[in-house]
Amino acid sequence: MTxxxxxxxxxxxxxxxxxxxxxxxxxxxxxxxxxxxxPVFQPHTFGHKxxxxxxxxxxxxxxxxxxxxxxxxxxxxxxxxxxVDTAFFVGNYPEHCSIEGATMHGYPSPEELADADWIELVxxxxxxxxxxxxxxxxxxxxxxxxxxxxxxxxxxxxxxVHGEAVPHPDHFAEVSVDLAAMENGAVVTGCSNEFFGxxxxxxxxxxxxxxxxxxETARNRxxxxxxxxxxxxxxxxxxxxxxxTTHFVGNAPGWCTLTGDDGIEILPRTRLQxxxxxRFRIEEVDDPVRTIRVDTYPDGGFGRLRVIGSFTSEGLYxxxxxxxxxxxxxxxx
Length: 333
What we know:
With about 325 residues, the protein is mainly β. It has helices spanning about 110-115, 315-325; strands at about 20, 45, 50, 55, 65-85, 95-100, 120-125, 130-135, 140-150, 155, 160-165, 175-180, 185-190, 215, 225-245, 255-260, 265-270, 275-280, 290-295, 300, 305-310.
C-alpha cells in the first residue's frame, strides 16, 4: 500500500465514529470533524457567533495551554495515517497539532478517557491554512480512540483516520457475519477500474445513499469485463451474497459472477436488475474461502456487497491472533 489514504477511514461518522469530548467548540461544533462529506464554505454567512465554518473551531485562547478533541473510532484498528484538513480556515487555523491514540474496553465516558494511557502517534507538527496535511503513523497497536491536540487554538475542518480494522474476536464465535464488511476487517485488494466510484464503498455499513456512495466503472468498450477483488476479514464459508444496485438505474451491471480462492465458483453468472437489492442463497458451496472476486458484465456499478457466512476455525484463529498481536505488539518481536 503506497498511499495510506487508500485504506478506510476508521473515524468517519458513517461507520459509527463519534467526537465524544472537546474542551471548547464555541465557534463551530466538534462533530463536524468526522462528517463524511468534504467541507464546504459560504462566504459572508454569519450566525450569532460569527462566520459559519464547516469544521471544529475554538475561541481565541487568552491563557497558556492548547485545545483538544477526542474521537471514538467507529471501527477500532491499526492506524496507518491521519489527515488533518484545515479547508477554508485561513486566518484562524492552528499553528501546530499533535495526535495521540488510546485503547479502552467497553464504552468509556469522557472522564474515563481523560485518564487513559495515551500514546503519541504524531508529534507536535506545523499546520498551514486551507490545506490537507497527511501524517504517516508507525505503530502496530490497535486503538479505539484518537485525541487531536491543536496549538494554541483555531479551526480544523476534517480529521481522517485511515487504517486497518481489528474487531474484537469474541463477537464472531459461532454466529453468521458479513465476511466482507470493512468493520470486520475486510479490504479491497484490487479492481479493474474506479472511474466514477471507489470500490472500498462496497464494504461500508448501511445502505448506499446515492450512486457516489458505491463503486462504478467507466463504460467498457473493449472485449473484457470489469472486476473487483476483496480479501475477506478471515477465512470463512459463504451462505448468502447480497449485491445492491440501488440508485444505479441506467448503469447497473447486466450480470455478475462471484469466485473464491483457486477459482471456486460461489455464484455463477447471474442476471442483475437496476436499482435493486439482490440476495442469493449459497447452498452447495462448502469450500472455505479467504478472498473473493466479483466480475461484472460488461461494466457498471453497484452500491454494497455483503458476503454472509461463518468463520472457519482457522479464520477465528486468525482473528484472535490479529487482535492479540495488535493489543500486545511485544509479541511480534
